[in-house]
Amino acid sequence: MTNTVVHGLPRWSLAVPPLALVVLVLTWGRDLGAVLIVLVCVGLGAAVIAAVHHAEVVAHRVGEPFGTLILALAVTVIEVALIVTLMASGGDKAASLARDTVFAAVMITCNGIVGLALVVGSVRHTTQQFRVHASGSALAVMTALVTLSLVLPTFTTSTPGATFSPAQLAFAGVASLTMYGVFVFVQTIRHRDYFLPVVAEEPAAARVGTVAETSAGVGQVGAGAGTGSEAVEVPIAADLVDDEEDREVHAAAPTGRVALLSLGLLFLCLIAVVGLAKTVSPKLEDAVESAGAPVAVVGVVIALLVLLPETVAAVRAALRNRLQTSLNLALGSALASIGLTIPAIAVASIWLSGPLVLGLGGTEMVLFALTVIVSMLTLATGRATLLQGAVHLMIFSSFVFLAVSP
């Protein structure tokens, strides 16, 4: 097995990023036939898997919530670059691309990723725990960002249509960046402990023997109590469970050199993911047009492809009974998508020609309101079950269906 590891990382995780970039270079700007489409899809899937692996290596090194923040920021920065590039080359057809992609990212993260993590985690662990104050604060910031950036343009009167005036767009960009910056400060510095995973409590029946708490707080098994036998200190079952989970998640703590290597490979993977998604997007646009579906479907597909790494990472965290990590990924990605995209679009609008449509339609606003209400109910108790996950997935399914058939 030692020959499969180089520099502390599996050989496949070292080989996939450059190979995916080679596929990107070979297919960039070309008319894709059936064989090249398969090659691009294979490269895309491999890059997503490698990105999740390297993100977990970095997360193990820097700890939570920095690991999830790094993945969310890396994906969002490249997502913003992709949106601006497509808008610059798409003309008036791309006027609503930023709105469609950002709103799709919100619905995917808050309903698709959260719902999938809740379902998968609940199937394996029945009930999962998370921190209400952390997830609730993230939901509050997300609600404010979406309302100020995507809902208000529909009702402003300074400009016709669902658009902002230059001054309004600048204000929305500054407000979005400020709120996201404050959230990151709270998440990583002021109240970092709020965003750490919750370790499920072990029921008392699972403890072995009779546990006697000493003045030092050490669990002891009273073997032959009253007979003069010495009490033997043993770890209680909950401690054993915690140690086992810690070994599962943090056993191979990487060195700083390995973490830096994984960080670099993570960015290569994300560049490959976004680049390959852009490469295949013309075929997707043709398929959308031939099917008679709205242009907004393109934004949904782009968001789905770009958010694949977060989706896989969130599901894996839920399987390990780390639902807080899954929520950090989902809600953090939604916040990063809005908090960074709107300021970037505000700056890019200086040289981008054509209108910039940001305001949501009636259907989207209803779905967003439903998402906020259901998310508040889901995050109110600090415990999640299969039912809550199914509700979120149903809302996500409704969003996808109505995007295809409005």
Automatic annotation (TrEMBL):
Q: Per UniProt, what is the membrane topology? A: Multi-pass membrane protein
Which Pfam families did the record assign?
A: Na_Ca_ex (PF01699)
Q: Which UniProt keywords apply?
A: Membrane, Transmembrane, Transmembrane helix
User: Where's the Sodium/calcium exchanger membrane region domain?
Assistant: 34-188, 262-403
Give a yes or no for keyword Transport in this entry. Answer: no
Where would you find this protein in the cell? Membrane
TM region positions? 12-29, 35-54, 66-89, 101-120, 132-155, 167-186, 258-279, 291-308, 329-352, 358-379, 386-404
Q: Which InterPro entries match?
A: Alkaline_pH_Ca-Antiporter, NaCa_Exmemb
**Record carries keyword NAD:** no
User: In its UniProt entry, what is this protein called?
Assistant: Ca2+:H+ antiporter
The species this protein belongs to is Kribbella orskensis
